[in-house]
Amino acid sequence: MKQTFLILALLGVMSTATAQSPMTAANPASGFVGLGVTVGGDELATATYTNGHSADIKAGSGVVFTAGLDYAIAPQFSIQGSVNFHVDNQTARNGDMRFQRFPVEVIGFYHPNSQWKVGGGVRYVNSAKLSGSGAAAMDDVTFKNTTSAIFETEYLFAPNLGVKVRYVKEELELKEWNAKVKANHVGISGVYYF
Q1: Facing residues of 121 across strands?
Q2: How far apart are CA 148 and CA 140, in angstroms?
Q3: How far apart are CA 133 and CA 9, in angstroms?
Q4: Which of 63, 99, 154, 186 is most buried as measured by Cβ atoms within 10 A of its Cβ?
Q5: Tens of pLDDT along 141-167?
């Protein structure tokens, strides 16, 4: 239900932006892809290796793969919608642990100049799941879908190449138990526009 609402909201904003397109360039829309890393959140599990080393799986940490659409509403304003795969993984020869989720994001930006963007928006997290296999086998731990706030700054090195720094305020609730974990995190990512 919330996912449908977010998609409809994005389409509504984009249709409004189309009505205002005389203020924008001839081609106000561009696609983008990105890759980033995040850190933060509560510890969900610890992987212990045979050599004595250990690594934590955290609710806000991991690698983020993203793809989306950027739309210029006016010369100083734009909106971005994206789908993402956010994963924290620890792998060994005899097993692995993984925390994965599929966020959908909508962010509005203000452009103080041609190189900087500052904005905020919402993130809807789908299908968050902690799982393990092999020596780390466990029953899957699943989380309810949730909506979070995003604050983001982007610097463009070139019209098609940028770096983003963000803060996400997020809390996840387990489906099976009445328990919540903090997934607040900071992140940095590279973005390519096409």
Answers
A1: 107, 150
A2: 23
A3: 39
A4: 99
A5: 999 999 999 999 999 999 999 999 999
